[in-house]
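Quick start: what a row looks like.
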Amino acid sequence: MNCPNCNCCMIMVEREDIELNWCPSCHGFWFSLIELKLFAKKFNVEKNVLEFLKTIDIKSKEKKRYCPKCLNSMYKVNVNGIVLDKCVNNCGLWFDCDELSKFINSLSDEKLSNINTINFLGEFFNVK
């Protein structure tokens, strides 16, 4: 699959039974909705993800992106001030490089440290 942001070929990785695609160029992440739910469960925010998935398209000045799986357009969703890209066919969700930690923190009842996400993903990508 190619990155919806920069069109670079993404790398599929698996960690603790969660598969995701990572762009080595722009450092964004692609999650299928199933994998996103598994990821959210790991951070104890799965109940909040179900609410988030009901969000609707918003107007944004960010560039239009296309789903790396089905190639249809993605719409913008706003989660607590974070603008994410969601496939219109519910294939998945795109996170720019800094949005994943912000997303998890925004869904948590107790503020999670960015270190949790870094610990989970950092071993793959040498994140410090």
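That is the whole record. The radius of gyration is 14 Å. The mean pLDDT is 79.
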